[in-house]
Structures are given as C-alpha cells and as structure tokens.
Amino acid sequence: MSRELIIGISGLRGIPAENLTAKAAEDYGRAFGVFLKESGVREGRVGVCIGRDSRTSGPMLRSAVTSGLCSVGVSVVDLGIVSTPGVSIMTKELDCAGGVVITASHNPIEYNGIKLLLGSGMAPPREAAERIKQIYLNDEFDSFQKSGQGGRSKNDHTDEIHIKKVLGIIDRVSIARCGFKVVLDSVNGAGGRVAKKLLAELGCEVIAINDKPTGIFAHEPEPLRQNLGQLCEEVKKNGADVGFAQDPDADRLAIVDENGSYIGEEYTLALAAKYVLSERPGRVATNLSTSRMIDDIAGPGSVIRTAVGEVNVAEAMLKNDCVIGGEGNGGVIDVRIGPVRDSLAAMGFVLQLMARERLSISELVAGIPAYHMVKEKFTIEGDLAEKMLDEAGKVFSDARVDRSDGVRFDFSEGWLHLRRSNTEPIMRAIAEAEIADKARGYIDMVLKIRDKVMG
Ligand code: MG
After folding, report:
1. Annotated catalytic residue: which of 105, 120, 186, 289?
2. Under DSSP, is residue 116 helix (H, G, I), strand (E, B) or coil?
3. How far is the CA of 349 from the centre of ligand 1 (A)?
C-alpha cells in the first residue's frame, strides 16, 4: 500500500505520524463544511455527526476535524466510538447535513482516515467528492470563515437506535428461541459494544474476544482467513454455533462455522440474501467483483451489477428498490437500516436463517453451489493498463462484456473482472469458476496478456 496521503472518493486516508496531521484533518473538516454550506443545505440543518473507530489517533483527528467544521460555522455532534453504519444511521436520524467517520476501516493499525457521508447517510458521489477535494487542495475557505462558529454537542444514543433498526426487520423471538452460542471477534475495534448488546437482545450466549475498543488490534484487522485463527479456535473450544468477525469500523462481517472453519467472506452476503429473498422476493444489487453465488440465490435477471464502491451499490439499491445488496467482502446493505454496509444487519439475517431452516452454518453453506475464486494484482501504469484491457477484449471475445468499471467478462463456466485501482498504479484481476483450474486459467491468461503488453 502506498504511504502517501490519499484523497480518494471516500475521504482522506494516511498515517497520522507521517502525513495525516492535525493540520490536514482540520483543513479537510473545513473543506467539508464549506462544501455543505455552498451546496445550499437549508438553514438550521448545517450540523455534522462525527464518530470514530477505536484507533489511538482517533481523538486527535476528531478534535482537528471538529475544529475545521466549527470554524466555518458548522455545528458538530460527537457520537464517540461507534461503527461506520452507526454514523450513517445517526446522520439521518438527527437530520444532519453530513457525517464524518474517523476510521481507516480494515487497513493496518498505523493508518487512519476521514470518511465523509452526506445527509442521506451515503458517501458523496464522485462529483461531490471531487468538489470537496478541490476546496481542500485550493484552500477555498475564506468566504465562510466570517460566518460565525459552530458549536459542539454529544450524543450517545447510536447503539440503541442502531439496534432498534435491526430488531425492526428481523424476528427476535424466533432467534431467541434457539439460544445460539456465538463467539464474537471485534478486533478491539468499534463494533464490540453494540454487537454484544444486539446479540444479547437476540437471546444468544455470547463469548466475546477482542471486544475492548482500545485500538490495539489483536490481529491484522482485515477479517480474512489468515487473521482469524483465534476465532476459529474459540468456536471449536466452546462448541459454539457460529463465529462472527467484524472489521475495526464494523461494516464488514466474516463468518466461522460450527466446526471452527472460516467459510469465506463471500458467504456473508450470500446467506443474508438467502434469508431476505425468501421472505421478500425482489432485486439485489452488488458489485462486479462479487461471487456468482448471489445470481444462483436470487435467480435469473434479479441481480444488478455495479462498479466497485459501496456508494455505487447503495445508489443502485435505492434506484431499483432492491430488497438486499452489498459486496462480497462481507458487506451487507439493507437500506431500511441505512445505505451502508452493516455487520449488525448481517448477523441478524444469518442468525434468522439458521433459526428458520434449523440448519448449521456448514449445512447452509453446503446448500449453496460453490465456486472457486482466484485474485491477483500487479503494477501497471495508465496507458499500458488501458492497452491491456483492450487486448483482453480481443482474447476473451466469446464472453459477455460489461465495461462499467474496468472490464468484466462473463463466460458460461465463470467470469473474470479486470479493474484498475483508483489510488495506485495497480491492476486487480478476479476470476471465479465452478472448477478451480478454470478460474486459475483465466488469471494465467491475464498474466500472459500483461507480459505481452508490457513487452
Ligand atoms: Mg470497514
């Protein structure tokens, strides 16, 4: 990963000790405030909710962003340590003009970031993100500095409101009747407190590990197989029904089955969708890099594929009245809760499916057609990357092609998605097929095309 300060579509990301300084954070807060004011949010609604994950640089960045916002006349509501979906929910709940989450999500512990949300609870679309970046880089603050200062208040109702929303769309009683034993690994991030409360409401016996929001991550924070050995062990040792792993800002959820086996993040959305669609048939939105399992579950023509990025999925869900959506990285979105990925909603749906089907996680997984996914990434500069995508189009000319984000090739036996990173000179290749060799074969072909293009 680059160690530069990255000003991306979802906000600012860097290393507080090196480049994500108090000055940078204050200016970014100010730029967001100016953006909200110039976009004409109605008078009296220029307030912003701010929450943070548990990283130790969080208090410094929160204070700096708060100063920046207040200095251009925006009032700030401090939510304390809460999840990313928690901030999104509160932004709408409190009728704020925007939200800020101080988090670097699943990135390594030395990173932090400032993620922005609009009043809708969603990340800004590309145009808005570009405008905020422009204000930030050009110091376009002057005209608003004279408009008076915003105040600061606190609100600690995020957990209860979030839980109420989740309980509003699942059947608490039928889950509680099962008395599930759950091991929860919150990586000492922001999600432990609220998840424990939700699981208690659902009548679960909870064994919580790494549930203190110290910001000292107990393992590498991304909820991947190689980082969840402790959770797998605890599930086995305690004879639990399921293990849940959250990332530090608790928007993603990974699952461990009753045998202590990590089932892969792609299954979180698959299982959640299986439950939701059986109750409320309808459409699903997900990105181009997500497993074909969702197509099998939702049925032909029911899946809307979008460019990668949470906001693209959320927008497609709202536009097409989707009943469920999300990403293959363990991100489940139900817009009735909020237009963001939510590990709590995901937990609720998975437990509900277990309760209704009276099946274990491994049995539920066995009931979904399995695929093999292979991922690869490599460095390639702009022009060559474009050339490579063209060349791939010629090689895979028998495939159905989607060019809405890089290129996705759909074959009868699988698919391949080639996509350039927005922030680094990197190409990502993801392939999936029923047969592992087939998926590997797509990737091998991509590497051959790369070698040819790069000479
Ligand atoms: Mg996250």
Report:
1. 105
2. strand
3. 19
